[in-house]
Structures are given as C-alpha cells and as structure tokens.
C-alpha cells in the first residue's frame, strides 16, 4: 500500500474519532462547570496525561524539532527546564488551587485569583492576560496542525498544490466542532488516548532517529560539528544568556500556565497529585526525546548534504516522519500528533472562553451572564477564527517559527501569573496592589517588545525580562503596602 495513503488513512480515522469523542463529550457536558473543569471529577491518570500533553502538543512535537533544526542545542534548555518546572508547579500550586476550587467552587484561574486577593480588578486583569496569551499559543497549535496537514497532502498528486490557508481552514473547522461540542471533557479524554500512544510511538521514533546514521546520534552530532559547529555547542546559536533566560522562563513559568494550572483543579482528590506529578514528568521526558533527536538528525542530514534543505524549519518533524519512519508508525505518530495539538488547542479555547464569558462579566458587572454554556460555545468559535487569522499573519507577514510563537504565549502567561499565583498562594504578605502592578507591567513589557521589535541584549527572551521585572515589583510593592486581611478559608488553605 502507498506510504501516503497509509498515513492519510490514520489521519482520516483520527478525524472520525474526534467527531465521535466530541459528540460523546457533548452528552456529558451539561453545565459551565462540566465545560470548563470537567466537574472536578477526573482520575489521576487522565489528569496526568492531560497535564503533560498540554505542555508538549504542537509547541513541542512540531516547534521543538524546528527550533533545534534552526538554532541548534539552544532549545534543549527549554525541554530540560520544563521537567524541573513540573515539580515547581505542583509544589507551589497544585494542592492549594484544588482546595480553593473545592471551598469556593471556582471554575477558572481568575476565580482563584479573585478569591486569594479579594479583588475584582485582579480577576479582570488575569482574564485579559489569558485572552491575550491564548491568541499567541492557540495560533501556535493551529499553525502546527496546518503545516503538518499541508506537508502530508502535498506529497499526494491530488493535493500537490494545496495552500497553507486552506489547511488552516480545514484544521480550524475540525477544531471548532471538537471544542464546541465536547469542551474540556473531550480534551482530557483525548489526552489520555494520545498520551498513551505518544509514549510508545515517541520511543519508537527516537529509536528510528538513532538509526538514520550508522553511528547513531553520535554520528549525527559529528556531522553537525564538522559542518555547522556552533549549533551543536551546549548553548547553540542563542548563547549562554539566552539559554539561561529560557531555562528560568520555562522552569518557573510552568506554574503560571493557565492551561496547565486549571487542570490541577480537575482531579477528584488532592491526594491524587502524588500520582499525577510523576506521570506528567515521565510522559514529558519521553516526549522531549523526540523533540531533540528529530531536530538533531534533520539538521545533520541537511548540513551533511544528505537531504534537501527544508522549506521551513517547522517542517522538520513531518519531513522526518514521512521519509524515515515505517509508514504504519508514521501514521500512528501523525494521528497522535494531531490529537496532542487538538486537545491542547481545546484547553486554550476553554480557558479563553471562560475568561470572556465567565470572568470578565463577573469582574465588571459583579455577576455571571445567563446561559453561560451557550455563550461559552460561541466564544469558542470566535476565538478559533481570530487565532486562525493570527496564525496566517504570523506565518506570512511575521515569519515566526512555531516554537517562538509558542514561547511568546508562554512568556505572556509566565510573567503575569507566576508572581500572582505561584508566589501569591504561598506568601500571605502578597498584596492586591502588587498583583495588579505585576500583571499590568508584564503585559506592557511583553507586548512592547513584541510589537515594536525592540532589541534585547544577549539573545534573552522578552518573556524572561517581563517575568524578572514583574516578580521584583510584585515582591517590592507587597512589602511596601500595608498587610491585607485574607479571608479565613483562604488563610487556612495557605497554612496547610
């Protein structure tokens, strides 16, 4: 059977599965709580898979190898620090946020922030941050899905001339149906399926990558060293300061990612965290090996004149899977890759819709809007369309790599929410003025650096600069302001 037919058959079967999962989840989604946090009724395996899948997705599986291909070993610092970040996130956030969700019946991260600081302004700013960050990160997922789909279809005679915009439309249409019908329930159960598949397929892909060269990854590294030595050095082309900036941004930043933190409110029991954390770290570590090995091998093949240069760095993963893996394995990996992207995109749409429909109206009017579930689905559609347009703009007008687009979304969340959530839930001296200042300043810095393309010395990322400044201001202003009274229930939770 033709290789591309096998791969596309897996993709088609996956699309059918997505429709079925969405319809099944729709029957279980009867309230806004079901749509946004799955009714806080999920087991540890489902939550563990959902947490690690939300971290990798199109960012890691497509953007990661693309970044290794273009900048060398620099991006490995992202992958390493994320493993450390799981421990930080669970230690600082998981237990307390789950207890607050139980006591206050919260369904979103802005709900938690409002409960901690007793401030509707803090709720509003957190919701705005989520909407802005979702645009960058959701565009990452849509663009990753479209590029993979375009690569696969162009290898066939019928769709040889298909454009990226058409693939964005196809991808977004499937995504909208999946997310509107199933909400977060569809997302987490797809995470479970694809997580299990990806753990197995990821190991097989790494083994395949290690056998592309007779001497394995050591020979691939030697080829790069002889032809493009800077990229294989410990800090790649970004440099030591840029790599350390990524290390801290991604290591500490995970505790401020709402798509991950929100899932920490979904487990049935707090004690489940002792199973969720190792499962999340283990799954991520195995997946990260795919990120590194595929990027290194594709870079070695191109600089060693054994493969034509890629049209775009983000084509590294689909090019490798299409050319070097068994077609059945490639089909499975492509299908699970689509599942990872789809479920993560659903998570972002979910928190974005919650911010628009639940949190912003509550912060402004003091009450939630009627028919939250109905309007949440409409907000999901609108966010998907806007993010798809942003993805097309980023690809054609801004020439941004998927990983860098994802890093901007990650940095937006980290700089605004790590001080407010990770520190604020553990430090009673933290004040609402400190929280408000940290969020506002972080957004100003992140978007000023991005929109005006301001130069940053030593290759450091804008997200790291914003995180550093917002954290210092958060601590300083909290210390300078008068200690605030914390509600008794929140205070008791912080004492545990």
Task: Please give a handful of descriptors for the protein shown.
496 residues, mainly alpha, Sodium/glucose cotransporter
SSE topology:
Layout (H helix, E strand, L loop, with lengths): L2 H26 L3 H6 L6 H12 L1 H15 L4 H29 L4 H9 L2 H35 L9 H47 L5 H12 L1 H4 L7 H14 L4 H4 L11 H31 L12 H9 L2 H39 L6 H27 L3 H22 L8 H20 L10 H19 L7 H8 L1
Helix pairs in contact: 1-8, 1-15, 3-8, 3-13, 3-15, 4-7, 4-13, 4-15, 4-17, 5-11, 5-13, 5-20, 6-7, 7-8, 7-14, 7-15, 7-16, 7-17, 7-18, 8-13, 8-15, 8-16, 9-13, 11-17, 11-19, 15-16, 17-18, 17-19, 18-19
- Please identify the oligomeric state: single chain
Which class of secondary structure composition applies to the elements?
A: mainly alpha
Main sheet?
A: none
The overall pLDDT, averaged over residues, is 84
Residue runs with pLDDT of under 50 for 5 or more positions? none
CATH superfamily: Sodium/glucose cotransporter
What portion of residues belong to β-strands? under 5%
CATH architecture: Up-down Bundle
Note the run of SSEs as H and E.
Answer: HHHHHHHHHHHHHHHHHHHH
Quick recap:
With 496 residues, the protein is mostly helical. Helices cover 78% and strands 0% of the residues.
Describe it for me?
This protein has 496 residues and is mainly α. It has helices spanning 3-28, 32-37, 44-55, 57-71, 76-104, 109-117, 120-154, 164-210, 216-227, 229-232, 240-253, 258-261, 273-303, 316-324, 327-365, 372-398, 402-423, 432-451, 462-480, 488-495. The chain has one domain (3-403): Sodium/glucose cotransporter. Helices cover 78% and strands 0% of the residues. Helix 7 runs parallel beside helix 14 (316-324) and helix 9 (216-227) crosses helix 13 (273-303). The chain is globular and about 65 Å long. The N and C termini lie far apart (60 Å). The mean pLDDT is 84.
């Amino acid at each position: 059977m033709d290789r591309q037919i096998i791969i596309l058959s897996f993709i088609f079967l996956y699309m059918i599965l997505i429709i079925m999962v969405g319809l099944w989840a729709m029957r279980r989604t009867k309230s806004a709580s079901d749509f946004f946090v799955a009714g806080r009724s999920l087991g540890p395996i489902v939550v563990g898979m959902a947490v690690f899948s939300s971290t990798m997705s199109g960012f890691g599986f497509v953007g990661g190898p693309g970044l290794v291909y273009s900048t060398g070993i620099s991006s490995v610092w992202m992958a390493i620090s994320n493993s450390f970040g799981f421990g930080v996130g669970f230690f600082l956030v998981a237990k307390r946020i789950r207890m607050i969700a139980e006591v206050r019946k919260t369904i979103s991260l802005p709900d938690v922030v409002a409960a901690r600081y007793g401030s509707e302004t803090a709720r509003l700013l957190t919701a705005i941050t989520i909407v802005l960050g979702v645009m960058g990160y959701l565009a990452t997922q849509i663009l990753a899905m479209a590029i993979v789909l375009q690569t696969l279809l162009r290898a066939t005679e019928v769709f040889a001339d298909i454009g990226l915009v058409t693939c964005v439309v196809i991808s977004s249409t499937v995504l909208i149906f999946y997310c509107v019908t199933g909400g977060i329930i569809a997302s987490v159960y797809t995470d479970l399926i694809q997580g299990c598949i990806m753990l197995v397929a990821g190991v097989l892909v790494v083994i395949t990558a290690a056998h592309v060269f007779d001497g394995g990854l050591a020979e691939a590294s030697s080829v790069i060293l002889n032809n493009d030595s800077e990229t294989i050095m410990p800090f790649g082309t970004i440099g030591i300061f840029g790599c350390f900036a990524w290390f801290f941004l991604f290591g500490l930043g995970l505790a401020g990612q709402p798509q991950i933190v929100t899932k920490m409110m979904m487990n049935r029991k707090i004690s489940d965290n002792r199973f969720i954390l190792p499962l999340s770290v283990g799954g991520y570590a195995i997946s990260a090996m795919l990120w590194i090995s595929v990027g290194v091998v594709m870079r070695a093949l191109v600089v060693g004149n054994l493969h034509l240069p890629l049209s775009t760095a983000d084509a590294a993963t689909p090019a490798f899977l299409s050319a070097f893996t068994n077609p059945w394995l490639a089909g499975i990996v492509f299908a699970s890759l689509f599942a990872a992207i789809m479920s993560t995109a659903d998570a972002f749409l979910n928190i974005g819709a919650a911010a628009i429909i639940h949190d912003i109206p509550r912060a402004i009017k003091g009450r939630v809007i009627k028919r939250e579930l109905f309007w949440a689905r409409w907000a999901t559609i609108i966010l998907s369309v806007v993010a798809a347009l942003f993805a097309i703009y980023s690809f054609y007008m801004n020439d941004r790599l998927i990983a860098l687009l994802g890093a901007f979304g990650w940095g937006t969340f980290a700089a605004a929410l790590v001080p407010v959530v990770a520190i604020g839930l553990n430090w009673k001296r933290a004040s609402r003025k400190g929280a408000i200042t940290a969020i506002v300043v972080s957004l100003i810095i992140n978007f000023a650096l991005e929109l005006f393309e301001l130069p940053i010395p030593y290759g450091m990322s804008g997200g790291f600069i914003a995180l550093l400044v917002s954290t210092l201001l958060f601590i300083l202003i909290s210390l300078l302001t008068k200690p605030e009274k914390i509600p008794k229930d929140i205070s008791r939770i912080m004492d545990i």
